[in-house]
Each structure stands twice: as structure tokens, then as C-alpha cells.
Write a structure and sequence with these properties.
The complex is a heterodimer. By secondary structure, chain A is of the alpha/beta class. Chain A is about 40% helix and about 10% strand. Chain A starts with 18 loop residues before the first helix and ends in a 5-residue tail after the last helix. Chain B has eleven helices and one strand. Chain B starts with a strand and ends with a helix. Classes of the chains: A alpha/beta, B mainly alpha. At the A-B interface, α2, α3, β2, α5 and α6 of A face β1, α1, α2, α4 and α7 of B. β5 (about 135-140) of chain A pairs antiparallel with β1 (about 1-5) of chain B. Chain B: Keywords: Coiled coil, Membrane, Transport. Chain B: This is t-SNARE coiled-coil homology domain-containing protein.
């Protein structure tokens, strides 16, 4: 397919995770037969993985004609064979066995692909069932994680913060740590990495998880010796860090496009909904914000002040190149342009989407958030925009707390930033006063629950103080001075300056392999329509955050990678991606028991 | 990727050795006849029909794609060869018209598939396998068709730019500059535009060959514009269709989450209910009893 001039404006994405190749080629294409269609059956986890790297049109192109949920009752289609792409868990395996237990089989035959190693017990059950008679393929693949972005992964477990830091007893915790460790090991396996594992000291969960990951990783390497092969790979590192290490980044109001949009607008499952007149009757638009949208990829880390300018500029250039009248290249005229040149609908709707999205962000910002940003930045940095240390923080936050127009959660964010600014926490009385001024009694447990993460709230615990920050000289927008702490860590790790006492290794780092290993340059399609790229042979820094990842931290991974000129690749991930609101919701339920927590989530439209 | 088929079959065979009576005759997937429920049997045929039509449409789209590639290659030859210009031009025009015809026919077939899909939804319910299969095929094929037509548009656009560049270059060779606006005007006026231009160039240091070149390119541009106008409506139709669908339609998670539990066809259950009712002992012995009255209401 020819590259249009639109695409040539943006650089090609290189995907570290070859999940889409793994699934499309390794699973679906491998059992494709010309002229025959198949049913694809997934469970929740595998569906999420599949959906994050393939589209319906991709799998239909490889012979799948319908996708089913294994946990729902399904219509028998005995003329077609079925591909089961499932996790090796009891619920899914039972459903698989049930499909073939009656005289009438649900499907003609079964091709089974497990997303991870199948435990012996379940495997034997399958062997004993009638499935064994109709199975044509049975494989275990390594896709136990979601490639959320080209350098960001998720393990799809939004319960993680609760599981690790809840004050209530949690029986599933051991099992959960093992599962996480296995997923992280699988991730390394897919990347062909055998990194040195380090963890942040002071928080015992980090060491526990790091240890478990090390064991799983070693087991994976025994099955797959190519992991970690290559002279550069010996320098790869995996860092395990806890959410409490940087509690500021997830609650600050960010002004870069992606972070701001997810914070201020209601974007669920990465879908942005808005209204726009077009050429037809329908005015509802629902757009998926993912890496298939080249404009999104180009804009997502940009400061909002630059976004609208950039989009308008690009739109004008586009119109000029197609010789369309560009006197008023703005949102209103897009539908006119669409009528004149409907063949450019894809491009025009991309511009429309991002103009609307930027506009929506600015509208919400001007309504209430602009009052907050200056205060927040001063508190987070400990100094004002001129570099003068903050003298009376209380004075700057009181007007905000007393303002009835400001939402409860925004007030809580300010209070938390104030507490972190005080470094050693504040007195109980002072906290009570602040809560009263702000009128947020109902949500006040959020603040206290942060102690579960090891943060200093009430001044008595001698807990951890936030680390010394790097001095940065790049010029930034006044309201975007804050740099996520993890960025300092990333840079230090790459320069081999990361303190070994604060970030111990699980085992001694592997000796640098001085013999030249021939690393074959593998040319493959990393991501469906992008051009082929070489197999990555340089070292990687993989970071896993326990308890959730914020957008500003995701951005840091890309910024640091770019700064190394491609020598290093930084990947970052967690159990889930959080927004400030979802983080506060998670914190709120830390002191509740599991059932009431699930009700809370259900009531608030969150996944349980 | 680990292949575990062998291991499974070993387990299965071992069990057979121990308990052969639990396993009937060896079931051979490819040869065995399956007992089918009456309900399902009716559905397999519509599924086969949809899949056959979908397969055929997808083959047509591939051919369309090949034609677009042919057009691109042919257009590229324009730049290199000068001699068989008129033939090349004819080829481009005929290939492009062929593409438009194929495109038009495919569009009609896709619309028909879309209607069929809608009717299936009404007859069998939107959650039945055949409706979902039809809808997914229609959505995907429309998506592929749009891609192919966009590629065609791209090829025509590139050719248009190339032609315009060549005209300007030729004009500058003979000492005249033609601006974009002048060029637009020329093309809009069709044949007259050429007459106007040739008159205005009479005085200039003219070269027969250059004039011929310009004339040829101009004609080609005019034909190209005509073709693009003809295909405009098709693009408009496709754009309306895309607007009506959300981008969720190609998203696997949205598709899977939208499925519902399968309930067997309602007439089968009603028949069963009637059977139970007839066999109801309460009805057979004493219809006046209160428990029978209660059951009757169910």
C-alpha cells in the first residue's frame, strides 16, 4: 500500500512487543485453511490481550468469522472448527470440556492455544475428557500481558492496589503475587530478555515480588535459552518499584494531551465520545484513542498549548496539499470539506477528533482547573516559578479548600500535595482542620489510606521521605515543572548511576559477555501495517510499578528513550493504568472489605 | 510456543488402555457424522451462504487491489518512457475505468450484503450466530473495500500531481510560467482551456514537441478530473456509512462484550412446555385442585 503524504509526517512506531505477530501468525494463521472459516473463542484475559493488538478485520482476514466469549452460553455451530485462545484456568478449561461432553458437539473440532503454561491437573482433565478426541492443535504461547502502547504494558489487574496494600486480610495475595511474577517473566520471555532484577528497598513487597519474578524468569530461561542472548542484553535491567515511591505524579493535574484528557474528561476503555455534524444524519462520534491513530501518537505527549496550534497547522498543510480552500480550516468547515472530498474522510475525521478533544480539555481546564495548577506545581516543586522556596504553603491552599466550586477530589489532591510538601507529614489536628475547611469528611479516608503505601501522612511515622531530585535545566511551561520521580531513576539506571543500596540487585548482575554472539537480524512486521524493522539488539530498561501507572510516567519512558538516541529502550508497565480519579477511588476502598469494595466499584462503573 | 498435543494424546491413550469401555468407537473428526439438533440444522445453510458470498466479495476486492497496483505501475511508466505515450495514456484510462466499474459493482454487492445482514437480524435475532457472522463480514469487507478505493484515489492523486508538474516544466522550458491557478482554470475549461493556452503561447519561443507534451498532459488531466468526479458519489456513500458506524465496530472487545447468552429457539421450548403440561399428573386426575389452578397460570 502506498504511504500517503499524511503518514509521512509521522515517524514509524517500533513495537517492542510482538504480540500481534505472535497471535496473528502463531495462532490464527497457523491453523488457517483456504476456504474454511473458524470460530474463535476467548475468555476475559485473552480477549483483552487480543483486542489490544488486533482488530476484527485482522482476524477475519485470517479465516475467523465470529468471536465468542467462552463463559457465555453459545449457539452450537457444528459445521465450523473452533480456535480456543484461553488462559489455563479452571473456569475456562471447564467451559472447554463442556463444549464436547454431550453427544452433540458444539463445534466440529478444537484448536487450543493457552496464553501461558497449563497446570498439570487441568491438563490431565482435558486429556481425560472427550476434548482429546477432537483436538487438532494444542499449544502454549507467551502472551500473558496487554501491550497497551509500543512502550507500555499492562497486566490487566485493576485490583492490584487493593491486593497489595489493603489493611484488610487478603487470602488471595500469595497467589496474586505468583501470577504477577509469571506474567512479568512471560513478558521478558517474549522480549527475549533475561534482565538483572532490582527493586526499591524500604517496601517489603518489592523484594517479595522481585524474588518471585527471578524464580519464574529462571524457569523460563531453562525452556528458552535464547533469552538474554547478545552482548548488549547483559546490561538490561528490570526494576520493581512501588506506587508509594512517587505519590505525586498520579494526583497532579498534568497539561500534556493524553494525561490531561484522561484526567479531565470521561474516557472509558480508551474511547472518546463527542458530537459533531457530518454528512449523514448521525452526530454521535466514538473514537478509539490508540496507536492506529497516527495523529494521536504524534500529539499525546505534547503540551495542550501546542496541541491545537499543531493540529490546525497540520490541517492547513493537508488542505493545501489537496488544493482545498483553506481560509477557514477549522472545526466548523470540516463537514464542508468532507462533502467536497469524502475520500479523505479518515484524515479529516482524525483532525476533527483531536480538535474536539483539545477543545474539550481546554474548556474543562478553564472552568475550574486553572486555579489549581499553579498551587499544585508550587507545592510539588517546593518553590514558585521564579525558583524561590515556598514560604507559607498553608496560605496558598486555604482559598482553594474554602472554594465551593471546586470538586472534593480536587481538594483532596491539593491537601495531599500539601502533606507531601511538608515532607514529614502533618499533625492530626491540622489534618482534621484542613478536612473540615474543605468539607470533605466523606472522602477523608483517602488521605489516611495513603499510609498503607508507606507515605508520610500523620507526622508520627518515620517513613520514607521522597528522594533528592535531579536539577533540570530544560525550559518548561510554568505549570508543567514537575517531572515524575521515575524519570530520574530511569536516567540513573541507564547511566549505571543508580544507587545499589537503595536499589539492590536480586542476584549479582550477569558478567558482560565479551565474545561476539551472532545476533541474526530478524526482519519482521512488528505491527501490522508498519514497515519492517530490525530485531532490537540493544539493552532494555523494564520498569514494573506495583499498584498502577500514571500517564506522566508513561511519557517519561518515551522521553528518556529518545534522549538515548535509540541506544536504550525503556519499557514501563504496571497492573493497570490509572487516572487521578481512579487512583483516589482505589485508595478510598483500601480500608474496606472485598465485597463492599466490589459494590463500590460497580456503583461507580468501575471494573471489579 | 510449546506444542503440547503429543502429551495430551499420550494421556488420552493411556486412559483408553485402562478404561476402554468409557470410550466408544474411535471418533474421527473429519469422517464422523455428527448428530445435529433440528434447530441448528436450519442455520448451517444460511451461514454457508453468507460465508460463500463473503469469500467471493473478498476475492473481488483483492482483484480490485491488483488493478490499482497495475494503475500505479502504469502511471510510473509515464515518467520514464516518452515514446508510447498515447498508448500508456489509453491504458491508464482503461485501467482506471475498469477499477471504477469493479468498484461500483462491489459497492452494490456490499450494500446487498448489508441488507441481507439486516434481514437476518430481524428474522433470527441480532444475537444469533448467523446474524453476527453476516454483520462482521459486512463490516470487514466494507473496511477493506474502502481501503482499496482510497488507494485508487491516491494513485489518481499522484498522477494528477505528476501531470501538473510536467505541464509546468514543459511550459517553463518554452519560456512561459504557468501558475497553479492558471492550470486549474485550464483544466476546468476542458478542451477550450487548451485552445486558450495554445493561443497565448503562440508568440513564445515555442517548440512543437513541448506544445505536444503540454497538450497531451492537459488532456490527461481533464480526463482524470472527469473520472474523479464520477467516483465522488461512491466515496460520499462510503463516508456516510463510516459515520454511522462507530470506530468500536472494528474493536474485538466491543464485539465480544456485546454478545449475549444463547437461548435456544423459542418454539422448541414452547413445545416442551406443552408436553410437560399434558403429562402433568394434577391435570390428569383432578382439575379442580388448587395446585392445578396455580400451575395453569404458569
Amino acid at each position: 500500500m502506498q504511504e500517503s503524504s499524511f503518514k509521512s509526517n509521522f515517524s514509524v512506531i517500533i513495537h517492542a512487543f510482538n504480540s500481534s505477530t505472535e497471535i496473528l501468525n502463531g495462532v490464527i494463521k497457523s491453523v488457517k485453511k483456504e476456504g474454511e472459516w473458524k470460530v474463535l473463542i476467548v475468555d476475559h484475559m485473552s480477549m483483552r490481550i487480543l483486542s489490544s493488538c488486533c482488530k476484527m478485520s485482522d482476524i477475519l482476514a485470517e479465516g475467523v468469522t465470529i468471536v465468542e466469549d467462552i463463559n457465555k452460553r453459545r449457539e452450537p455451530i457444528s459445521s465450523l472448527e473452533a480456535i480456543y485462545l484461553i488462559s489455563p484456568v479452571e473456569k475456562s478449561v471447564r467451559a472447554l470440556i463442556d463444549d464436547f461432553k454431550d453427544a452433540a458437539f458444539t463445534y466440529k473440532a478444537a484448536h487450543i492455544f493457552f496464553t501461558d503454561t497449563c497446570p498439570d491437573g487441568l491438563f490431565a482433565e482435558i486429556g481425560r475428557s472427550r476434548v482429546a478426541k477432537v483436538v487438532k492443535t494444542l499449544k502454549e504461547i507467551n502472551v500473558a500481558f496487554l501491550p497497551y502502547e509500543s512502550q507500555v504494558f499492562s497486566l490487566d489487574d485493576p485490583n492490584s492496589l487493593y491486593s497489595f496494600y489493603s489493611s484488610k486480610p487478603n487470602e488471595g495475595k500469595e497467589k496474586m503475587i505468583e501470577t504477577l511474577a509469571e506474567q512479568i517473566a512471560t513478558l521478558c520471555d517474549t522480549l527475549k530478555e533475561y534482565p538483572a532484577i532490582r527493586y526499591r528497598k524500604y517496601e517489603k513487597e518489592n523484594a517479595r515480588l522481585a524474588d518471585e519474578v527471578y524464580q519464574r524468569l529462571t524457569a523460563h530461561k531453562a525452556d528458552n535459552p535464547t533469552m538474554g542472548e547478545g552482548a548488549d542484553k547483559a546490561r538490561s535491567q528490570l526494576l520493581i518499584v512501588d506506587r508509594g515511591f512517587d505519590p505525586i505524579s498520579p494526583i497532579l493535574h498534568e497539561l500534556t494531551f493524553q494525561a490531561m484528557a484522561y484526567d479531565l474528561l470521561d474516557i472509558k476503555q480508551d474511547i472518546y465520545s463527542y458530537q459533531s455534524t457530518g454528512i449523514g444524519n448521525s452526530n454521535d462520534r466514538e473514537v478509539l484513542l490508540d496507536e492506529d491513530d497516527e495523529l494521536w501518537v504524534a500529539l499525546r505527549h505534547m503540551h495542550i498549548a501546542d496541541v491545537t496550534k499543531k493540529v490546525t497547522e497540520l490541517l492547513q498543510t493537508f488542505c493545501q496539499s489537496k488544493r482545498m480552500n483553506t481560509d477557514n480550516a477549522n472545526i466548523k468547515d470540516l463537514s464542508q470539506m468532507l462533502k467536497k472530498m469524502p475520500q479523505y474522510q479518515k484524515e479529516l475525521s482524525m483532525y476533527s477528533t483531536h480538535l474536539h478533544l483539545a477543545g474539550a480539555c481546554m474548556k474543562t481546564y478553564k472552568a475550574s482547573v486553572d486555579k489549581l495548577c499553579e498551587v499544585e506545581q508550587d507545592l510539588a516543586m517546593g518553590e514558585n516559578e521564579e525558583g524561590e522556596p515556598l514560604k507559607d504553603a498553608m496560605k496558598s491552599i486555604v482559598p482553594v479548600l474554602l472554594d465551593n466550586e471546586i470538586k472534593a477530589y480536587d481538594k483532596i489532591r491539593i491537601i495531599l500535595l500539601y502533606i507531601f510538601h511538608m515532607k514529614k507529614g502533618i499533625g492530626e489536628e491540622n489534618l482534621a482542620k484542613l478536612i473540615q475547611h474543605a468539607n470533605i469528611m466523606a472522602d477523608s479516608n483517602i488521605i489516611n489510606n495513603l499510609q498503607n503505601l508507606g507515605c508520610n501522612i500523620i507526622g508520627r511515622n518515620a517513613g520514607i521521605t521522597l528522594p533528592e531530585r535531579k536539577q533540570r535545566t530544560e525550559s518548561t511551561y510554568q505549570l508543567s515543572r514537575w517531572v515524575p520521580i521515575i524519570k530520574d531513576v530511569m536516567e540513573n539506571a541507564i547511566e549505571d548511576k543508580l544507587d545499589r543500596k537503595q536499589w539492590p540487585f536480586i542476584s549479582d548482575p550477569a558478567p558482560i559477555n565479551t565474545t561476539q554472539t551472532a545476533v541474526s537480524a530478524r526482519f519482521g512486521h512488528w505491527h501490522k501495517n508498519k514497515s519492517p524493522t530490525e530485531y532490537r539488539s540493544g539493552p532494555r530498561l523494564i520498569i514494573f510499578v506495583i499498584g498502577g501507572l500514571s500517564h506522566s510516567e508513561m511519557r517519561s519512558a518515551y522521553e528518556v528513550t529518545r534522549a538515548t538516541d535509540g541506544k536504550w529502550e525503556v519499557l514501563i508497565g504496571s497492573s493497570h493504568i490509572l487516572t487521578p480519579t481512579s487512583f483516589l477511588n482505589d485508595l478510598k476502598s483500601l480500608d474496606q472489605i472485598q465485597n463492599s469494595r466490589m459494590n463500590f466499584n460497580a456503583q461507580n462503573g468501575l471494573k471489579s | 510456543m510449546r506444542d503440547m498435543l503429543q502429551r495430551l494424546q499420550t494421556i488420552s491413550e493411556e486412559l483408553e488402555d485402562y478404561e476402554p469401555e468409557l470410550y466408544g468407537d474411535e471418533y474421527d473428526v473429519d469422517k464422523g457424522t455428527l448428530s445435529q439438533q433440528a434447530v441448528m440444522f436450519e442455520n448451517t445453510s444460511p451461514i454457508d451462504d453468507i460465508l460463500k458470498e463473503a469469500h467471493s466479495i473478498s476475492k473481488e476486492i483483492s482483484l480490485l487491489h491488483l488493478e490499482v497496483e497495475r494503475l500505479t505501475i502504469n502511471n510510473e511508466r509515464f515518467g520514464t518512457s516518452v515514446r508510447r505515450l498515447t498508448l500508456l495514456k489509453k491504458d491508464s484510462d482503461s485501467i482506471a475505468r475498469g477499477i471504477q466499474q469493479r468498484g461500483g459493482a462491489l459497492h452494490i454487492r456490499l450494500q446487498a450484503l448489508g441488507q441481507e445482514s439486516g434481514q437476518l437480524e430481524e428474522r433470527e435475532g441480532p444475537n444469533s450466530a448467523v446474524s453476527r457472522i453476516a454483520r462482521a463480514q459486512h463490516d470487514t469487507l466494507s473496511h477493506l473495500f474502502r481501503k482499496a478505493m482510497n488507494d485508487y484515489n491516491e494513485a489518481e492523486e499522484m498522477q494528477r500531481s505528476a501531470c501538473r508538474r510536467r505541464i509546468k516544466r514543459q511550459a517553463s522550458i518554452i519560456g512561459t510560467e504557468i501558475t497553479d491557478e492558471q492550470l486549474d482554470g485550464m483544466v476546468d475549461k476542458g478542451g477550450e482551456g487548451w485552445t486558450e493556452l495554445s493561443q497565448s503561447l503562440q508568440g513564445a519561443r515555442s517548440s512543437r514537441w513541448a506544445m505536444c507534451e503540454i497538450k497531451g498532459r492537459h488532456k490527461e488531466l481533464v480526463e482524470l478530473e472527469v473520472r474523479l468526479k464520477e467516483v465522488h458519489d461512491l466515496f460520499l456513500d462510503m463516508a456516510v456509512l463510516v459515520e454511522e458506524q462507530s470506530s468500536k465496530v472494528n474493536n474485538i472487545e466491543a464485539n465480544v462484550c456485546g454478545t449475549q447468552e444463547y437461548t435456544e429457539k423459542i418454539n422448541v421450548n414452547v413445545k416442551r412446555a406443552l408436553q410437560y403440561k399434558r403429562k402433568n399428573p394434577c391435570q390428569q386426575c383432578c382439575p379442580c385442585l388448587p395446585c392445578w389452578n396455580q400451575n395453569r397460570l404458569l
